[in-house]
Amino acid sequence: MKPFEYLRARDAAGAVAAVTGHPGASFLGGGTNLVDHMKLGITAPDLLIDIARLPLDDIEELADGSVRIGATVRNSDLAAHRLIRERHRVLSEALLAGASGQLRNMATTGGNLLQRTRCTYFQDLGTPCNKREPGSGCSALEGVNRDHAVLGASASCVAVHPSDMAVALAALDARVVVLGPDGERSMQLTEFHRLPGDAPERDTVLEHGELITALELPARPGALSAYRKVRDRASYAFALVSVAAVLELDQDGTIREVRLALGGVAHKPWRATLAESLLRGTQPSEENFREAAQAELRSASALRDNAFKIPMARNTMVAVLRDLSGR
Amino acid sequence: MFGPEVAMDELAEACGLDPIELRIRNEPDTDPDSGKPFSSRHLLECLAVGAERFGWEKRSAAPRSRLEDRWQVGLGVAAATYPFNRIAENAALIEFNADSTHTVQIGAADLGTGTWTTLTQIAADALGCEVQAVRLEIGDTSLPVASVAGGSSGTASWGAAIIAAAVAFRAEHGDDPVPGARTRASAAADPAADHYAMHSFGAQFAEVQVHADTGEVRVPRMLGVFSAGRIINPRTARSQFIGGMTMGIGMALHEESLMDERFGIFTNHDLAGYHIPTHADIGEVEATWLEETDHRAGPLGARGIGEIGITGAAAAIANATYNATGIRVRELPLTPDKFIF
């Protein structure tokens, strides 16, 4: 084990200052991914700033009906919260579809967004990986790549983002609030994670020292939402494909608004904006759902082992929309 | 058993026969491999008992006949067989104690299958005493020599040595032994073993659901009916059977080692990547057995049960997925990608 220093942050500004001034420092939340990485040797921070006990663990409704979620709220608490279950069901379902009860009790909201790909080559120090060691090459591109991306990948990286929660947040138009050395900024969740391009070592747009302090979910009265995760076993497995959907219907049944996000298919939660635009203003129907899903996936491309993800994503989008519009 | 029992299912369909009927029509009188008679063979009874209990008559011969709430439902069956070999090289030592208990020593091992319990029962039975009066000692190589806990041979092989030692002890020390009386004996070889084909048998039944949209496979219901000679302890036997069937679900749905030959690594080399069933994957798994004693299978009349529980399980599940979907999968595991197009 590499020795490291551990400090418990007293406040968010202090935590940001401590990490900003220290290139080898890292924030520690629930530790469910970072500690694994330290054991595997993927990362070796020499200073951990524990932010899990900062007073960022509230879930509150704001005056405009939006919901603000503190970054250190545990996944299990978030999933169980009344505001989330009643108004943003897709988020509760996504959280409960992820990991195990024990892990959800530890994992934080901010940490969930920052968890890294489970690509085996990223986790195995004995193989080249551009994400772990920029410039070394991508082993998955021509390796065992059943779990890998079919959308938005690049020649340097075909990894997928593992989070379920983030997929639901993408469909909910969530915003991420970040505190940095120069103060606070916020961005759409869909702008928070990056596609790999030629810099797959960067999962997000966060700069070193920037700390996620909260998420904000805009009010969406009357919206129906659901999360469907397809995986190799009934529990405790990462998504092969997942779909988060938020649907608003007019009185006459026309689709007023629809938001779709896909998990398990890309380096970030994939907002299916093309499918959404095709569905807006139409009547819900199996044919329309299918056409929209197919259009979204026209840009998908398969690797050796993952061609099944394309029809699986199509079918799952159709299935979720069929279920939601039938409610 | 996976390949042959899936092939039997394909053959039954090609012949237009129910897969159980195909097996009835082809039931051999003697072991086709060695030409010897079977010590005991009740495969057809296993199939009949299982078909009755499982509701096999509800199965539609035509695949893709049942769609329930977007799940395609199917039933499948497979036969199971596993050879029985009692290992003769076993010895046990019995000593009578001042407190009127018997210490019974044998270098056997309990892998979690219930050896502590079953060998205590066997010793008490052979000594004609209460189980409370047996102090079993196992799990130490300094104890009298014993064979492995493997090959579905443990209970029958160790039990035979304990019975031999008990018989010798009673002959030597009578009904009223003095404290310190001790006898060591080895199990005799099995004269019948050369003249009979000895196998355990079973019938595995599975109900599966394959999701019409996503290809996910679930096994809500399984039943195994086994013929393994005398069952020593129903509780530990059932546990071992359903444990084997549960591992069979893992074999059918999940387990696979993926090798990247460029690096010589297994890419799913931890339990996050190498999947075994979770609780959520296991539905109703039930095991039962025929009441019987195989008098040719050594002094216990018991054949092995360690491996027959998993045998045929994956084939029954694969055959059920064919019945559900019309998609024949000959390569395990039965992951969702194999049922989606």
From TrEMBL, chain A:
The record's keywords, sorted A to Z, are: Oxidoreductase
Picking any one GO molecular function of the record gives: oxidoreductase activity
Question: InterPro entries per the record?
Answer: CO_DH_flav_C (IPR005107), CO_DH_flav_C_dom_sf (IPR036683), Diverse_Substr_Oxidored (IPR051312), FAD-bd_PCMH (IPR016166), FAD-bd_PCMH-like_sf (IPR036318), FAD-bd_PCMH_sub1 (IPR016167), FAD-bd_PCMH_sub2 (IPR016169), Mopterin_DH_FAD-bd (IPR002346)
- The chain positions of domain FAD-binding PCMH-type read 1-222
Superkingdom classification of source: Bacteria
What is the protein name given in its UniProt record?
A: Molybdopterin dehydrogenase FAD-binding protein
TrEMBL record, chain B:
Recorded coiled-coil stretches? none
- Keyword Transcription regulation listed? The answer is no
Specify the Aldehyde oxidase/xanthine dehydrogenase second molybdopterin binding domain's residue ranges: 51-171, 193-282
One of the entry's Gene Ontology molecular-function terms is: oxidoreductase activity
Note the InterPro entries from the entry: Ald_Oxase/xanthine_DH-like, AldOxase/xan_DH_MoCoBD2, AldOxase/xan_DH_Mopterin-bd_sf
Q: Does the keyword Protein biosynthesis apply?
A: no
Keywords assigned by UniProt, alphabetized? Molybdenum
The protein's name in its UniProt record = Xanthine dehydrogenase D subunit
Q: Which organism is it from?
A: Paeniglutamicibacter gangotriensis Lz1y
